[in-house]
Amino acid sequence: MILDLDIGNTLSKWRLKDVESSEIRSRGAVWTREEWRPGADIPDLDVVEAVRISSVARAAVLNDTVQLLRHQVRQVYVAHSTAEALGVVNGYEEPGRLGVDRWMGALAGYQLAGGCCAVDCGSAITVDFVLPGGRHLGGYILPGLRLMKESLKLGTRNVAIDPDSEADELLMPGRRTVEAVNHGIYMAAVSAVNRIYSEVCDQQGVALPMLLTGGDARVISRGVQIPHSVWPDMVYGGLEACFPLTLAERAGKMAGAPRIAEPASLEKIRAGLAFSMLL
User: Fold this and answer.
1) 101 catalytic, yes or no?
2) Torsions phi, psi for 214 (to 5 deg)
3) Secondary structure E strands in the chain
4) Catalytic one of 4, 6, 64, 101
5) Model-level pTM?
6) What would the pLDDT profile of 207-258 be if each residue is shown by its tens digit?
7) Which domains are delineated in the chain?
8) Residues 221 and 203 sit within 8 Å (Cβ to Cβ)
9) Count of CB atoms situated within 10 Å of the CB of 168
């Protein structure tokens, strides 16, 4: 089995992938901890022959995790943000300072769509752009839904937005404080994603496919007006592309990759942007 780890600031997500069939056998998540140790909530390392890791947690967390795994697993691969990989040129002045989860998402999106807008809806919402031809422009970071709610300090932090809520409902004025908070942060998040995408496509003269991932991707997807696809395993897709271990991966297939939604025409994007600026 292959163990893929996506260690975030809040959650550490994992999945087990069969080496022979390239099928996903199981998956889960644990809270990111200072001392990562195996337990009932993570897979049995005895069945694991290779591990691939993307981590944005503190260096000590990653180092302890790698040290532990290397005692029990034959192959351990750790992803890093680099100046160039898989045809993509990193847009950061200091490439190593780009979050590796964003880099994995950009690489996976480029392998799938050629050029893309990759949106990760986690503790922070990140929006990265890769042009056809592989130039990564850089991106944007804004607070995620949970961080925005916590910043208001109104005692509503533990009342989550229902991911099955309809966007029309979430965009209406709230009639209780918890609704006003939830609807306000939802409006802020989806409005930012919609506007950022339109502005960058207008500036660059290209309509890019949009891909959403992360824990809040489902709910944010409901309010994003741009045609898009949701890809929960986008960071894992970057790990697969960087460290292909199965026959399917070596052939360029990334598990769970969605069908790409055809982007709106550049003319339509510009018309919508012009209309929003008039309001």
Assistant:
1) yes
2) 100, 165
3) 2-7, 11-17, 24-31, 50-55, 75-78, 84-85, 88-89, 116-121, 124-130, 136-143, 210-213, 228-230
4) 101
5) 0.91
6) 999 999 999 999 999 999 999 999 999 999 999 999 999 999 999 999 999 9
7) 2-78 (3.30.420.40), 84-278 (3.30.420.40)
8) no
9) 9
